[in-house]
Design goal:
This protein has 8 helices and no strands. By secondary structure, the chain is mainly alpha-helical. The protein has a domain at about 60-195: Tetracycline Repressor, domain 2, CATH 1.10.357.10. The longest helix is centred in the N-terminal third of the chain and has 29 residues, at about 5-30. The protein is elongated, with a radius of gyration of 20 Å. InterPro entries: Homeodomain-like_sf, HTH-type_TetR-like_transc_reg, HTH_TetR, Tet_transcr_reg_TetR-rel_C_sf. Keywords: DNA-binding, Transcription, Transcription regulation. This is HTH tetR-type domain-containing protein. Pfam families: TetR_N.
Length: about 200
């Protein structure tokens, strides 16, 4: 078989795997892990039932890969912003805007992350991924809040608790937005920032 044909076949395999993952994200997000069957994912993907086993051994494997994507994407989003230049206030604003924009287009991954953090039925490996990356996310946010306090931009409070409050608030807001789609612009980013930073005029 020629390299060109090999490449084309690989592209087809990658596309089908992505199709299954997108279908899995939607079904798991809507039905939860316990309420999802492999047949539900296959039906959503509009592929033959036997084909799924060329890519995944079980629905558990699909869920674990989706959970890993959800948590690693979140971690990289936070890491890149925290380690970028700009004042702590500017970075916190950029991060908040970025998270809202990202979850507006990938709400199912947020729901997968949420159930991985709260459900006792999800695979243990997925729960372990959640624990690892959630802890790293909080460390990055704590670092950002410490910088903001040193530079006088953020209010003085326990930086870890501020990081935890910020993370909890964003989770609550995203969940509300997914529940009530008409509230896309609620709350405004500046409303959230005012809770953690000293009041400042809009530039």
């Amino acid at each position: 078989m020629s390299p060109r044909i090999d490449e084309q076949n690989q592209q087809i395999r990658d596309a089908r795997k992505q199709q299954l993952l997108e279908a899995g994200a939607k079904v798991f997000g809507e039905r939860g892990y316990a309420g999802t069957k492999v047949s539900d994912i296959v039906r959503e993907a509009q592929l033959s039932h036997g084909l799924i086993y060329h890519y995944f051994a079980s629905k558990e494997d699909i869920y674990i890969e989706l959970a890993r994507t959800a948590f690693t994407t979140s971690y990289e989003t936070i890491r890149q912003v925290v380690e970028n230049g700009g004042s702590p206030y500017e970075r916190l604003k950029e991060l908040t805007e970025g998270i809202f924009a990202h979850t507006a287009g990938s709400g199912y991954f947020f729901l997968i992350a949420l159930q991985t953090n709260t459900s006792k039925t999800v695979p243990e490996e997925a729960a372990a991924i959640s624990k690892e990356y959630s802890g790293q996310n909080l460390q990055l946010l704590e670092q950002l809040f410490r910088e903001g306090q040193k530079q006088g931009e953020f209010i003085h409070a326990d930086p870890f608790k501020q990081a935890l409050m910020y993370s909890s608030m964003l989770n609550g807001v995203i969940f509300t937005r997914l529940t009530y789609s008409e509230l896309e612009d609620f709350p405004q980013v500046d409303q959230i920032l005012r809770i953690f930073t000293h009041a400042r005029e809009e530039e």
